Amino acid sequence: MKRTWLILAGGFLTVVVIGAMVVMGAVPQNDAACAAGTASLQSASTHAAVDNYSGDQLANAAAIINAGDAMGVPAQGVVIGVMTAMGESSLQALNYGDKAGPDSRGLFQQRASWGTLAQRMDATTSADLFFTHLLAVPGWQNMTPTAAAHAVQRNADPNHYMPFYKPAEDVVAALAGTDAACADTAAAVSGDSRQLAQQIVDETTAGTIAWLTPSNFPEIQYAAEGRTVANCQVDPRILQVIQIAYKTFGKLGISDINRLCLNEHPPGSFNGDAHTANGGGHAVDFYAFGGTATNGADANAIKLIKALDPIMPAGHSGIGQENCRAAAGTSVTLAHMSQFADACTHLHVQVDPNNPAPLTVATSN
Q: Keyword annotations for this protein (predicted)?
């Protein structure tokens, strides 16, 4: 299978098309490993409840998973499909609509223009219809899950599906055995610094990214505007890390990026710190994931660490709070990122300020 690697280094995007060969130390996502796989409908209906979904709801989720697998939809898309059905019908084949769509029916509340009543009421066929539309959305894998679902469903609230992403991950993982981190890292992120920064600006405006203090945000605004401001740069790789975290949790709290910007800390006050070294902006501190505070050792932190490690530059990236994980009994072994001690009030992610080794993000053509 032909694969395209988006390799971001120093703000420039390099596209490398390869066959079976791996180049530049890239770590490809294995297509088989990152497919959601299949789920047994019979087993699903008797499966223990997952995030309060059970019985016919899980059987319907299994039908969606299997439909996606049959169509070759990547795990990321399958999770979006289950998420959408959760948000539309609570995974129930509803034989009624609402005021906005009185002819809406089924798991996905599809209108009459989508197909016959029988098609829309059938779990598998309605899922086929949904995935056909999702795969036709340009760049859907670059979107947040709720934005991708909204592009198909056209819900009045584009953020309507956001609360259902984590439960959908849990259901897919429980029924099909898919590693949730696989679904997250399968998502592509932009290779354009301004676009990445603008996405963060938009997410901040929407209230889904919060900043511990207002002084942490201007460097992102400058990057989105394409402005070069002394000591206010943001490493493009850190912008990618933020977007990967956002795609994973749908809501973030960020406490620090470039400590030099707006004279938060004078040059030289944190020598060697990735927040300040070589112009600063080579690290990000997250204080919350999905609306829940992180100490760098909790389940959300571990999830992001495991999602990032395969795509971070080997030997040229790091993760803090090793001491916090050791104390909590949640230590992890990593292949690419070094680990070090830091305050247990956040999760620190950094790239080497003096080496432009890129993150690698794989997409399929």
A: Plasmid
User: What SS3 state is found at 224?
Assistant: helix
- Looking at residue 101, its pLDDT comes to 86
Helix, strand, or coil here: 292? strand
Place of tokens 């104390």: 327
Domain architecture of the chain: domains with CATH? 40-184 (1.10.530), 193-359 (no CATH)
Name the pLDDT band for 72 (thresholds 50, 70, 90). confident
Q: Is 278 exposed, middle or buried (0-12, 13-18, 19+ CB in 10 A)?
A: middle
This prediction's pTM: 0.57
* Amino acid occupying residue 248: T
Q: Which residue has the tokens 């910007």?
A: 261
User: Residue 172 pLDDT > 70, yes or no?
Assistant: yes
Answer yes or no: are the C-beta atoms of 216 and 255 closer than 8 Å: yes
Specify whether the CB–CB gap between 123 and 227 falls below 8 A. Answer: no
Of the candidates 233, 239, 211, the residue with the CA atom closest to the CA atom of residue 280:
233
- The encoded tokens of residue 168 equal 């959908």
Q: Is 113 helix (H, G, I), strand (E, B) or coil?
A: helix
